[in-house]
Each structure stands twice: as C-alpha cells, then as structure tokens.
Amino acid sequence: MKLDGKRLRLYAVTDRAWASGPDALLAQVADAIDGGAGIVQLREKHLDHDAFLEEAKRFVALCREKGAISIINDDVEIALTVGADGVHVGQEDLAAGRAREVLGPDKIVGVSAHSVAEAQAAQAAGADYLGVGAAFVTGTKADAKPITRDTIRAITAAVDIPAVAIGGITRENLPQLSGCGLQGVAVVSALFAQSDVKAAARELLALSEQMACS
Known about the structure:
This protein is α/β, with parallel strands linked by helices. The chain is 40% helix and 16% strand. The protein has eight helices and eight strands. An eight-stranded parallel barrel has the order 1-2-3-4-5-6-7-8, surrounded by seven helices. Strand 3, helix 3 and strand 4 form a beta-alpha-beta unit. Helix 1 runs parallel beside helix 2 and helix 2 packs across helix 3. The chain starts with 9 loop residues before the first strand and ends with a helix. The model has no long low-confidence stretch (mean pLDDT 94).
C-alpha cells in the first residue's frame, strides 16, 4: 500500500503513562488527530489480550471517524481482527514478510529500522514505511541507541518507501533532522505528555513540515 508522505508528517504513538485510563487515552488520540496527526499507532506493551482487543476496537473506530490512519503496534492478529489500517513491527517482532502475508496487500506494514541493511530488507519484505531511529536519546525504549544523522540520510537514500524518525524527538530538537530525507516524525511524549495535546500536535506538525521540506 502506498502512503502519501504528507500523512506521515506527524505520526503519533500512544503511551498510557500520561492517561488515567482508556477513555483518557482515546481523548488524547482525538486531540492529537484534531491537531494534525495523520497517522496514530496504538502501542500497548502491558495490557492483556482481551483488554488490548477492546481498546483497539474503539481506537480504530475513532481514527476512522476522524480520518486518521490507524496502526496497531506488534500484534498482527489484533490488527486484522479490529480492521486497523495496518501494523508496525520491530526487528524483534513478527517479520515484515509474515505481517504482509497475514494482512494481505491492502494493509499498511511499517517496520523499525536502525541500519541500511535492515531498511532494505524491510522494503524487500513488503514494508510501506520505515520508523528510523532512535533519532535521539529516549526514555520510551531504554535499549534504543541513537543513530547518527549520516545513518538516517543513508537509510532514506537506500530505499524508495517513506521514512519517519522516531525516538526522543521534541519540538526543540526536531529541526536538527532537516536534510535527512525524512517524510515526518513519530512522537510519543512530545505529544501525550503535554497538557494541551492538540496545541502540541499543531506545533510539531508545523516544525515537521519545515523539516521535511528542507
């Protein structure tokens, strides 16, 4: 599935650390979309299967209502069950090729990549976009080591599919990613840890537009 790069300018990745429950989390997602996020990934590392499934159903319905692309992190079966637009898998998760096999040709498959070799393998396996990083030091993934701007540029130059940077991105450091060939940025705390998620989304989207066009 081809992705319009503009939909990737601001890619929101959820984290319930700043939400009091499912309702609060979905309210944050709604604000992120209203502020300009074109694609949202539901990321739940600690919910059991049934709770994740129920939340995913509501999440997909919300994204559909608001016109945003819905992505489920890691769990291909849940993505298929709830009718999400796609799934994002890491290097340690279900292989991109297997995700494509399960979801079929019309769904979106995103893959994390930290090197040119990983990026090219993901593209060959049918990935639609790459999440490249970590761009900066991040508290979301303790084992995610930052990669250099040169590596990011090498990755985006080596593939034909769009790429977003992820990992430790804030409104302060986002402009440092200019000139790397990225279509956008994926953010977690820069959105969902903010008191005004919608306003944060608007600001990050404007910065990402400038970054992607430079």
